[in-house]
């Protein structure tokens, strides 16, 4: 918003000392291959994308784990309380609530007694292993998004340097076709644009340093372990698929044996 007023007359005030048709446009395209504002907007969108993906993934994993646990526990607890015949279970926004059958005039839920479910798996009620696995997956995804975010920051920082350098010149010399000779073009507000350019360099550099410090805090060993974990997971999934395919191929043809037995009968 602040830089919009600085760059709104960027092309109209880019004037070259020639009347040759098309020379101004050609020199402006050479001086600014892409506008500073559009480049920075594109940079912000791409750099924020890994963080948004991580937030979506973590929320989805938490909701999926909660629904998975509730979908298993609710039928068992409902069956247990239906035997007693005194209380009913209701699902209110994913929370199990007991209601008494006795008419009291007020439909107020009673407190739910926590009971041991004998048929429930141990890992579901005391789900330390599943919780650890979920946290490992989320931390692995977090490390990956930090690496991608840092790579994007470094890439945009290098691209900004090769496109514009560290300053915006007040006079730009151009000999690009269709200019008949080398002409001088005058850039509007060069000092102000230089300030914005240096500011964005500083912000991007600070972001890169913070990302590297975050990776150092997470530990390079954890990063290597996360990468190896992804590779091991892909390998285990492929092995399971191969075993399933081999198991399906070794199953006997039951339809043929039944038809042959019926023929003998």
From TrEMBL:
Its membrane topology: Multi-pass membrane protein
Subcellular localization(s) per the UniProt record: Cell junction, Gap junction; Cell membrane
Keyword vocabulary terms for this entry: Cell junction, Cell membrane, Gap junction, Membrane, Transmembrane, Transmembrane helix
Keyword Transmembrane helix appears in the UniProt entry: yes
Main localization, broad class: other
Ranges for domain Connexin cysteine-rich: 152-218
Residue numbers spanned by region Disordered: 244-265
Keyword Zinc set for record: no
Any one cellular-component term (Gene Ontology): connexin complex
Domain Connexin N-terminal: 5-38
Pfam entry (one): Connexin
Transmembrane segments annotated in the record for this chain: 39-59, 141-163, 194-213
Molecular functions per Gene Ontology: gap junction channel activity
Protein family according to the UniProt entry: Belongs to the connexin family.
Description of how the protein assembles with itself and partners: A connexon is composed of a hexamer of connexins.
PANTHER family the record matches: CONNEXIN (PTHR11984), GAP JUNCTION PROTEIN (PTHR11984:SF107)
Entry function: One gap junction consists of a cluster of closely packed pairs of transmembrane channels, the connexons, through which materials of low MW diffuse from one cell to a neighboring cell.
Name of the molecule in the record: Gap junction protein
Taxonomic lineage of the native organism: Eukaryota, Metazoa, Chordata, Craniata, Vertebrata
């Amino acid at each position: 918003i602040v830089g919009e007023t600085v760059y709104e007359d960027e092309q109209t005030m880019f004037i070259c000392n020639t009347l040759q048709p098309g020379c101004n446009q050609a020199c402006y395209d050479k001086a600014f291959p892409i506008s500073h504002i559009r480049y920075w907007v594109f940079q912000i969108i791409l750099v924020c994308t890994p963080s948004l993906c991580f937030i979506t993934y973590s929320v989805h994993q938490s909701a999926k784990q909660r629904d998975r646990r509730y979908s298993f526990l609710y039928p068992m607890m409902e069956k247990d309380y239906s035997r007693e015949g005194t209380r009913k279970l209701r699902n209110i926004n994913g929370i199990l609530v007991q209601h008494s059958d006795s008419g009291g005039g007020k439909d107020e839920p009673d407190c739910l007694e926590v009971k041991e479910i004998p048929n429930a798996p141990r890992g579901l009620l005391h789900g330390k292993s599943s919780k650890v696995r979920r946290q490992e997956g989320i931390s692995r995804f977090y490390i990956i998004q930090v690496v991608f975010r840092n790579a994007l920051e470094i890439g945009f920082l290098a691209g900004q340097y090769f496109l514009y350098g560290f300053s915006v010149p007040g006079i730009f010399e151009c000999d690009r076709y269709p200019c008949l000779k080398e002409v001088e073009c005058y850039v509007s507000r060069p000092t102000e644009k230089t300030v914005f350019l240096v500011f964005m360099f500083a912000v991007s550099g600070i972001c890169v340093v913070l990302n590297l410090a975050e990776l150092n805090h997470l530990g390079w060993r954890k990063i290597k372990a996360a990468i190896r974990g992804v590779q091991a997971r892909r390998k285990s999934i492929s092995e399971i698929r191969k075993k399933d395919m081999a198991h399906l191929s070794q199953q006997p043809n039951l339809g043929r044996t039944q038809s042959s037995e019926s023929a003998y009968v």
